Amino acid sequence: MPFPAVRPRRLRRTPALRSLVRETALDPAQTILPIFVVEDPAQAGPITSLPGVSRVTAEDAAKLAAHAESRGVGGVLLFGIPRRKDDRGSSASDPAGPVQAACRAIRAAVKIPVMTDVCLCEYTAHGHCGLVKAGTVDNDATLPLLCEMAVSHAAAGAEVVAPSDMMDGRVAAIRAALDAAGFPEVAIMAYSAKSASAFYGPFREAAGSAPGFGDRRGYQMDPANFREALREIDLDVAEGADLVMVKPAGPCLDIVAAAAARSPVPVAAYQVSGEYLMIKAGAATGHLDERSCALESLLAIRRAGARVIITYYADRIAEWLEA
Ligand code: PBG
User: Fold this and answer.
1) DSSP-assigned beta bridge partners for residue 36
2) From the CA of 292, how far away is ligand 1's center (Å)?
3) Is 119 in the pocket of ligand 1 (CB under 6 A)?
């Protein structure tokens, strides 16, 4: 029964008809807002590479989380900017560190889950995500440091820890460490299929975490690989991940869709700093409409199959959907 009997435009005629048959909807309750927490208040303030995003103190992180909660946001994901960095990233597990302080302040202020990024790159002087030995990142020597960091976040009140380092075996190691430390209820959101992406550039400026030598291609995934991304997801599920993540989101929608089809656990996708900046920068020229582009980019991630979306736009979605 082809045209003229069939006319798909019939259901596009009015806003009410369109909304009646819409297949996908954005829900701020299934988004997560990243927050950059500083230890040194002198480092707080707007982030040049991420217009509209600021580095904040632990107390102000609680205010941001409360605002996000009031806008219906489903959770916050914390990144730390410590005063001290060394070769081992020792400050990552400091109970008085910025992320740990923010976990306590946020847990006292809001009900939405507090999640923390578990990775050494913001804490190491060389900027790599693990312990460097003989010029390369040593996988197995890094695992105990990640475990210690995750346990210190859990002790400070984190409800979900999110390892983003891409070391092999870290999900199982962190699960065992959390359980042994008395935190069997703390969940793991694994950055499972994380590419060595150029789109993290603005984040590294924000967090001061660019590698001092070389790049991350020896541990993050080759963006060319689809089958390997699914293998990483399967491995993390087998190791006990409670959620798996695909990152970046927009450039990896094929992987998001395949992950959603096969993963028994919820799939998250991270709309990263460079994806956000592209929309911001386009809007700043006056030639892109920020609200429409942001909502469309997030809807596409949802349509591909992501249950949870991590985005710097999380706290704007509700107001934009109401507009
Ligand atoms: C830490 C980490 C990074 C991001 C999230 N966790 C940076 C990186 O891997 O270099 C990127 C997030 C973004 O770009 O918004 N390893």
Assistant:
1) 55, 79
2) 25
3) yes
Statement: residue 308 has pLDDT above 90: yes
- Binning pLDDT at 50, 70 and 90, where does residue 323 land? confident
Region 61-84: what's the mean pLDDT?
A: 98
Q: Residue 4, preceding bond cis, omega within 30 degrees?
A: yes
Asked if 194 is an active-site residue, the reply is yes
123 lines ligand 1 (CB under 6 A): no
| pLDDT per position as a tens digit, 158-210 | 999 999 999 999 999 999 999 999 999 999 999 999 999 999 999 999 999 99
Q: How many Å apart are CA 62 and CA 249, to the nearest integer?
A: 27
Active site (annotated) includes residue 247: yes
Residues 6+ apart with CB under 8 A from 24: 299, 302, 303
pTM score, two decimals? Answer: 0.97
Ligand 1 contact, 117 CB (< 6 A): yes
Residue 228 has pLDDT above 90, yes or no: yes
Q: Residue 247 C-alpha to ligand 1 middle, in angstroms?
A: 9
Using alpha carbons, list the distances in angstroms from residue 289 to 71, 275, 282, 285: 22, 15, 8, 10
Could you tell me what percentage of the chain is helix, strand and coil, using 3-state DSSP and rounding each to the nearest 5?
A: 45, 20, 35
Which residue is catalytic, options 63, 85, 194, 280? Answer: 194
**Is the beta carbon of 63 within 6 A of some atom in ligand 1?**
no
| Structure token digits, residue 211 | 């590698």
With CA atoms as reference, report the closest residue to 112 among 179, 158, 155. Answer: 158
Reported as a pLDDT band with limits 50, 70 and 90, residue 306 is very high
**Cis peptide bond N-terminal to 248, omega within 30:** yes
